[in-house]
Please model this.
Amino acid sequence: MRIFLATLLTLLSISLQAITIKSINYEGMVHISESVALRMLEFQVGDTVDIEAIDKSIQNYFKQGYFDDVWVDENSGKLTYHFKEKAIISKIELKGWKENDSETKEFVIQIKKGSLYDEKKLEAAKKRIEAAISKDGKIDSVVEIEKEYLDNGSIKVTFYVNEGEKIIIDKVDFSGLVGLDQYAFDDVVANKEHQFMGWFFGRNDGKMSLADLEYDPLRIRDVYMQHGYLDAKVDVPFVRVNLDSYKAKMSYKIEEGEVYTISDVEISQTKSVIDNSEIQKVIKLKKGEPFNINKFRDDADKIKNIIADLSYAFVQVVPDLQKNKKDQTVKVVFKITPGDKVKIRNVVISGNTRTLDRIIRRELYLGPGDMYSLTDLKDSRNSLGRLGFFEGNTIEEKRVDNQTIDLVVKVSEAPTGNIQLGGGYGSASGFLVNVGLSDKNIWGSGIDVGVKLERSETTENYSFNISNPRLNDSDFSGNFSLFKSIAYYETSGYTVKSDGLSTGVGHKFSRHISGYMGYNYSGNTYILDAAFDNNLTNQYFENYGKSSVSMNLSFDNTDDYYLPREGFTLSQSFEKSGLGADANYFKSRTNFGKFIGLEEYVGMDVIFRYKARLYYGVDTGYMPIAEKFYMGGMGSVRGYQSYSIAPTTTEANGYIRRVGATQTFSNNLELSFPLVPKAKMRLVTYLDWGFIGENSIDEFSRGGYGAGLEWFSPVGPIQFMFSKAINPEVGDKTTGFEFTMGQRF
Model:
């Protein structure tokens, strides 16, 4: 080491006798200030020191890690410390593996520009790169480090990576299988046997994951535990790799044991806080059934929730399995330690750079002075998610003492001001684009304001609307809107001009149930196509005014507004027109949506959605054609143009016109997959099917399928849909592409 050279120089430059320090000077030192360097010395000017003390000071400076070399000169009691600083790393490059991945440089290499050159840190980074590649199942990878001194004295470091070969698992053998089939493990293990056409979605590609080799036996044992095999033993797999073909064979040694049957399920509370019979109601494990570890875990969580809802925030539920190997039975005992009741001391809001604190607090079901409730905590998170104001939110529980906690609400603001777009490409009308401006959280107040100035080949809309979901922070809501629109229904052969207003009030009855009552007035004028025989009297195309009242009741317990992963929505509305205007009809609209996150089942953030709509109308005097129901497009059956699926009538000149229906039902099945999580992009596949008719709901039936892109962009949520109609009939208006912006996924 250079420190020994420094010591030798010291011995040569300082006499063997002790010296009295007259001054201390520094040359070449940058990273440590002179005042700090002086404090690091164990002596000062005026002290008498020997060689050992000076040598120790050199070692102390060298240990700081900033210098390649440190030495000292002495001249008549004047000490001068000389430093040779380490070079600065000004550039870091990665070649041959994830070259443009900034996260790899941050979390794997872990060396930043401006760092001091350090061989040990470079070697540690090299090992981390090798380990990261190894986790991908590749062996024989080589990482080399090249350093280059630049003109400014800094160093450029380049990691050259030569990735090894991927190991493909050619065969997996299990010895000791009796009660279960090896295919029962396919859904849980990471290392699977290669299947024919393994590259295809849903097939096993056989690529080995070295990092998962030690965990796969635990996953297999967990499957056994789900079927009652409490004594099952699964050894770490023995792996044989052919280095010529890079194919591997794996073998597991398994001892299954016997299936254990539940002899009894008991509840043991260290302090009785709830009747055991109430806890037994939520337990799925039953006496006489085979033991199931999944039910066991679910039961423990449900017990914890019940107790935590009684304000015991620090409750512990410790399961105890008492096995009887003689008769292969197990007694399950849930040992419950409630602790003390806990009160909320304070609620702290953070991360809301735009949204006002009170807008967040009014969605929380827990506040300072309230007793703790786990259900209230979860409902608060979901309520914040349903606002649509935040990309994400968490509520942390900070323990103050055994009886008090603080809640820290952390939110991440999402864009709420949208440039709303809608459009598509139709076989007849070509490319369509609609544009609007809105902000559902203007100035962070929670108030929704929108202005539409949109125009396309088929529509013109000019409107202003304002709504407040919580008037004066109460459970009442209110809205008001003015609108003027022109809609050209090309597939039906007419244009409707409308202008009017709507207003209403709502009320939140519970956490998930809300109601609304509103009034709507509009004046509507028809303009018929030239192909229509204007001399022919047609009751469908009379100008009319509409004055109606509507009522709506809705339920929503989803966890997020734009991208829910749990819960469902259900709404029922009724509309009655005929209050001093021409139109006179009754409408019923029912909407349903179910959302299920599948990550715990498939290991990735897949979301299942089911959406359904049932609309029904009754002509109680006069139901204009524009007030009837149509299918097609986003929101009903994709693959067909908007409003293109409906009953038709044939005019005297042979013109076929769509005249709407009084009843319709459509539903959608969707699977949403993560595509580029960093960019908040998802892939969605879907199947739509609907029915519509005048006298019966199944007069017309159409379906469509396709795939699309869901993107939560910086300007709001966007959907691009590529669709294919299923068995379209002659005269149907199909479309292959549609997109929208600002809508819930």
Observations:
- DSSP finds eleven helices and 38 strands in the chain.
- Confidence is low (pLDDT under 50) at residues 1-6, 8-16, 425-430.
